[in-house]
Amino acid sequence: MTDFPNHDRHSAPAAALPSFDAAERNFGMIPNLARKMATAPALLEAYLQVGALFDTTSLTPQERQVVLLTVSRENSCGYCMGAHSVLADMSKVPEAVTAAIREDGAIPDPRLAALNRFTRVLVQQRGWVPEEALQAFLDAGFDRQQVLEVVLGVGMKTLSNYTNHIAGTTLDEAFAHRAWEPPNA
Question: Which domain holds residue 69?
Fold first, then answer.
């Protein structure tokens, strides 16, 4: 695998520095993901902007974390599973829900379980969601706007999951206590 640098403020392209500032404001640090993405400043900027837009959706903070964890689980992204497990804790996602996603188990909350199922199908089927899966999501109390908001979350996480796979991003110390390894690792 090609070696991608873990940029800092001195090695990063100048175009990435405003995104470093934004990441530091958001997270209190510059995560390793941002350091890897800085190699392509447009990618880092897009990721942060899509994340900010995802935060404005009608999905609750807990629901957004369920989407992001589910996508990361489906894509076997250890970095994002670790990071978003911490963010899920901060967003008050019940530990039983986070554990179920991490372990591919049953989610005890019916609404969050429906969101997890829909997100999984969306990723697995590459957007070709069967009508019955879409209807089950709607029957769980979600609406068509939220269908497309989940698509936004999938797009956001795909950017980071794929970057981490290609760049071999190591988990930051701040997330290490929630490290996760894919079952096929």
Answer: 61-161+171-178
CA distances from 39 to 5, 13, 15, 47 (A): 7, 7, 10, 13
Residue 75, Cβ neighbours under 10 Å: how many?
Answer: 19
* Model confidence band, residue 184 (pLDDT cutoffs 50, 70, 90): confident
Q: Are 153 and 69 in contact (CB under 8 A)?
A: no
Distance linking the first and last C-alpha atoms of the chain: 16
Question: 52 lies in a domain?
Answer: no
8 Å CB contact between 55 and 64: yes
Half-sphere exposure of 132 (CA within 13 A, CB side): 0
How many C-beta atoms lie closer than 10 Å to residue 59's C-beta?
A: 21
**Average pLDDT rounded to a whole number, residues 141-148:** 99
Q: What is the CATH number of the domain that holds 91?
A: 1.20.1290.10
How much is the average pLDDT of 68-91?
98
Could you give the number of structural domains in the chain? Answer: 1
Question: Quick one: DSSP state of residue 94?
Answer: -
Q: For position 85, what pLDDT does the model report? A: 98
Q: Are 154 and 119 in contact (CB under 8 A)?
A: yes
Amino acid letter for position 68: L
